[in-house]
């Protein structure tokens, strides 16, 4: 009996197109930000925001995570950061959040082995609450951020954020 591979090849080609157009393979719950280059965490952050994926976002933060505001007060820990981001993701569940990282940041080694600092970071967030055809989106831009990133070797090399520092006057809003 002869097997006709043309049908299989068409199906395989269709599957590849679906995978490419969908943005890649579906990530299992609890997926990590895999890799050992510190800048990879920026792609993972953008993806978590774009997909409004709080479970993936949780995996990007170290358990000892903290967010420091230069204006004093209102510093956040892991739980407060997750609550704030989860509320934001829920508020935009019918719309979208797009995170853009601008070039020009620096990466320096931290004081501990496997720790890095991403400095002079500029992040632009576009918030579209209604999706296409709805209310005009607004933007938040944060300039001069410093992000502490830790390389974890097990179970696979992956990155987590252990600290974020926001200098005074870093955030601006616009429509």
Structural class: alpha+beta
Portion in strands: 35-45%
Helix content: 25-40%
- Head-to-tail CA distance between termini: 66 Å
User: How many β-strands, per DSSP?
Assistant: 8
Large-scale geometry: globular
Unreliable runs, pLDDT <50, ≥5 residues?
1-29
SSE string, helix = H, strand = E? HHHEEHEEEEEE
Biggest sheet features: 8 strands, mixed
Q: Whole-number radius of gyration?
A: 19 Å
Number of helices: 4
How would you describe this structure to a colleague?
It is a single chain. This protein is of the alpha+beta class and 175 residues long. It has four helices and eight strands, in the order H-H-H-E-E-H-E-E-E-E-E-E. The chain has helices at residues 5-21, 40-50, 54-59, 78-91, and strands spanning 61-69, 76-77, 96-101, 106-109, 115-128, 138-152, 158-166, 171-174. Strands 1, 2, 3, 4, 5, 6, 7 and 8 form an eight-stranded mixed beta sheet that branches. The chain is globular. The termini are far apart. Mean pLDDT is 82; it is low at 1-29.
Q: In short, what is this structure?
A:
With 175 residues, the chain is an alpha+beta fold.
Summarize the helices and strands and which ones pair or pack.
Layout: H1 5-21, H2 40-50, H3 54-59, E1 61-69, E2 76-77, H4 78-91, E3 96-101, E4 106-109, E5 115-128, E6 138-152, E7 158-166, E8 171-174
Parallel strand pairs: 1-7
Antiparallel strand pairs: 1-2, 3-5, 4-5, 5-6, 6-7, 6-8
Keywords, separated by commas or semicolons:
single chain; 36% strand; globular; 4 helices; disordered N terminus; alpha+beta
């Amino acid at each position: 009996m002869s097997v006709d591979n043309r049908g299989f090849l068409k199906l395989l080609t269709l599957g590849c197109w679906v995978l490419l157009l969908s943005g890649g393979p579906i990530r299992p719950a609890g997926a990590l930000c895999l890799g050992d280059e510190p800048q990879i965490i920026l792609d993972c952050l953008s993806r978590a925001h774009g997909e409004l994926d709080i479970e993936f976002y949780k995996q990007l933060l170290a358990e000892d995570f903290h967010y420091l505001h230069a204006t004093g007060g209102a510093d956040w820990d892991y739980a407060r950061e997750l609550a704030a981001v989860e509320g934001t993701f829920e508020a935009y569940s019918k719309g979208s959040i797009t995170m853009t990282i601008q070039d020009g940041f620096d990466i320096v080694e931290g004081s501990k082995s496997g720790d890095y600092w991403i400095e002079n970071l500029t992040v632009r967030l576009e918030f579209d609450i209604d999706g296409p055809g709805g209310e005009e989106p607004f933007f938040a831009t944060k300039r001069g951020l410093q992000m502490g990133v830790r390389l974890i070797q097990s179970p696979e090399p992956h990155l987590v954020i252990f600290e974020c520092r926001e200098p005074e006057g870093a955030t601006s809003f616009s429509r």
